[in-house]
Amino acid sequence: MVKVIKKSFVVIGKEGSTLDGEGFIQKLWDDANSHFGEVAHLAKKDANGGIVGIWGAMSDIYRSFKPWEDGFSKGLYLAGVECVDNAEAPEGWTKWIIPDYEYMLLKTIRECLKKPLDK
Question: What is the 3-state secondary structure (H, E, C) of 14-54?
Answer without folding.
Answer: EEEEHHHCCCHHHHHHHHHHHCHHHCHHHECECCCCCECCE
